[in-house]
Amino acid sequence: MPFSLWLSLAAVCAMGAMSPGPSLALVLRHTLGGGRLVGMTAALCHAGGVGIYALLTVLGLGALIAQSPTLFQLITWAGALYLAWLGIKALRAGSAGAMQQQGMATSSARAAKEGVLVALGNPKLIIFFIALLSQFVTPDMSFLAKALIVVTAMVIDGGWYVLVAVALSHSRVLPWLQHRAHWINRITGVLLLALALRVVAGPFS
After folding, report:
1. Cα–Cα distance between 35 and 44 in angstroms, integer?
2. How far apart are the first and last CA of the chain?
3. Among residues 121, 131, 154, 22, which one has the least CA distance to residue 83?
4. If we measure between CA atoms, which residue out of 12, 19, 20 comes closest to residue 132?
5. How confident is the model over 67-95, as pLDDT tens digits?
6. Average pLDDT over residues 95-113
7. Domain ranges in the chain?
8. pLDDT at 193
9. How far is CA 2 from the centre of its chain?
10. At the N or C end, where does the chain have fewer CB atoms within 10 A?
11. Residues 119-166: pLDDT tens digits?
């Protein structure tokens, strides 16, 4: 995979990881309730679940492209609609949502379990990955290239939420984020809508 294409992959994976939702709420909750290490545990285990979905998606996309290009295109457009819906939802969220403080007593074991379950229990991740990874997967793609896609998705997801856990473990950061949550949601919404349009336009090159 050319480096320029990998940069595009990394950018869209980062956009997916940064979008507000249950994953952010999970890391926020465990970091506030158990501290930095517990929050990082939730983040890394969530990344493991994301990696499983990414692997299934990459393997399935290659076969689907080869066997039914029309069905593949329809699924890709459905994924683009989902990205657009996420963008509109983020724009309408205002300052509410996952940035609200909600700590609880927790542990590393519970954080690990919920990290995996939140990822695997969210079937919308499959749609999300189809919309994103369809831009990079081809029928003749090598195993190494597919592995690179999966590892990139895992590392970026885990890295982002580890950074969130580290940042939120400092008491001054969360109020700062809460105060600016409406701007974070607006920026995320615009970027998700732009990404949806890019998916409809066709694969990256």
Report:
1. 15
2. 10
3. 131
4. 12
5. 777 777 777 777 678 778 877 877 776 65
6. 68
7. 3-201
8. 82
9. 23
10. C
11. 887 666 777 777 777 778 777 788 898 899 999 999 999 999 999 888
DSSP-assigned letters across all residues of the chain: --HHHHHHHHHHHHHHHHS-SHHHHHHHHHHHHH-HHHHHHHHHHHHHHHHHHHHHHHHHHHHHHHH-HHHHHHHHHHHHHHHHHHHHHHHHHTT-STTS-------HHHHHHHHHHHHHT-THHHHHHHHHHTTT--TT--HHHHHHHHHHHHHHHHHHHHHHHHHHTSTTHHHHHHHTHHHHHHHHHHHHHHHHHHHHH----
Structural contact between residues 161 and 174, judged by C-beta atoms closer than 8 angstroms: no
Average pLDDT, the chain: 78
* Token pair for 39: 């929050």
Could you tell me if 146 and 2 are in contact, meaning their C-beta atoms sit under 8 angstroms apart? no
pLDDT at 41: 94
Q: Which residue type, as a one-letter code, is found at position 113? A: K
Residue with tokens 């590892």: 151
Question: What is each CA distance from 205 to 33, 87, 107, 175, in whole angstroms?
Answer: 44, 24, 44, 41
